[in-house]
Amino acid sequence: MIPRYTRPEMAAIWSPKSKFGIWLEIETLAAEAMEQKGLIPAGVTAAVRERAGFDVDRIDE
After folding, report:
1. Which of 14, 34, 51, 60 could disulfide-link to 39, CB 3.0 to 4.6 Å?
2. pLDDT tens, 26-44?
3. Is residue 4 part of a domain?
4. How far apart are CA 38 and CA 30, in angstroms?
């Protein structure tokens, strides 16, 4: 997005932090579905929600 034509609210929606946060949530929901189907051990989703995170600066390296 071109910064000078972008409202702060829209920039926040399309920011890398928001994008990676959504990706993390999708992967967590996928793990939850796999856990419910017995494809991964019980408790994995809770551990992912508790421990998972990301650093945009490290991703950009």
Report:
1. 34
2. 999 999 999 999 999 999 9
3. no
4. 12
Q: For residue 25, what are its two tokens? A: 């949530």
Please tell me the distance from the alpha carbon of residue 56 to that of residue 14, in angstroms, as a whole number.
13
Residue 36 tokens, joined = 């419910």
Question: Which one-letter DSSP state was computed for residue 15?
Answer: S
Whether residue 47 lies inside any domain: the answer is yes
Rounded Cα distance between 37 and 4, Å, is: 47
- Say what the pLDDT of residue 3 is: 80
Could you read off the pLDDT of 14-30 as tens digits, one per residue?
A: 899 999 999 999 999 99
* Residue 3 domain-assigned (yes or no): no
